[in-house]
Amino acid sequence: MKLIFNILKTLLALLGLAGVSTLVATVQIRRLTGAQATPTSTDVTSGSVHAGTQDANTSPCRIPVPTSGSNYSFWVNTQLHCTVAPDNSLTNVFFYTDGANGFGTDVTAIVSTASTYASALGAAGSSGSLLNQTNHASLTGATSNLFLYTSSCKLTVAGSIAATTGSFTNRVVYQLIVASNASAGNTGGELMTWTFDEA
Predict the structure, then answer these.
(1) What total number of domains does the chain contain?
(2) What is the dihedral of CA 91, 117, 191, 69, to 10 degrees?
(3) Residue 111's beta-bridge partner residues?
(4) Which of 25, 47, 48, 180 satisfies CB 3.0 to 4.6 Å to 86 for a cystine?
(5) Cα dihedral 109, 114, 116, 122 sign
(6) CB 123 within 8 A of CB 71
(7) pTM over the 0.70 mark
(8) Phi, psi dihedrals of residue 133, rounded to the nearest 5°
(9) Closest Cα partner for 39 from 59, 26, 50, 55?
(10) 132 Cβ neighbours under 8 A, 6+ residues apart
């Protein structure tokens, strides 16, 4: 059995509004896993996000290369969470990549946003279920190629927060797709960036 191993890095970029001299809020990127009613929320701000055939942010993260068709990672649910309140607000949230797929031949990724959390579906160790509006009813639209979203064409993420703490955005949900011509071994890493304005 051929296996794909992957690591996705995450980054927060803090953008101050004109006239604001200091940024006081602390914001984390959280990955949500587990039960629909009581998901586990893990801080992945300065670490790696692992997309494999399990609903957990653990390594190694493997996706078997199929003999035909495609296998999928379990979809990855991420969200921004404020732990130290801003003076006024956090608004204008966006998400993007560098636009270049470095995962290798026959490995792609898709993304959408979701208004609520939905547990990742699939058969652990084999393949996740395809991320679409049938399997994840709270997606706000059809999925797109992850790498369409760049610094000049960002994915808009609904949500804002006033001078308080807590989770405050829609979820950004993405998934890796591995087709039959993919090579076994480690994929390249990818950097995904969130930005927001603080006032």
Answers:
(1) 1
(2) -140
(3) 144, 174
(4) 25
(5) negative
(6) no
(7) yes
(8) -75, -10
(9) 55
(10) 139, 142, 143
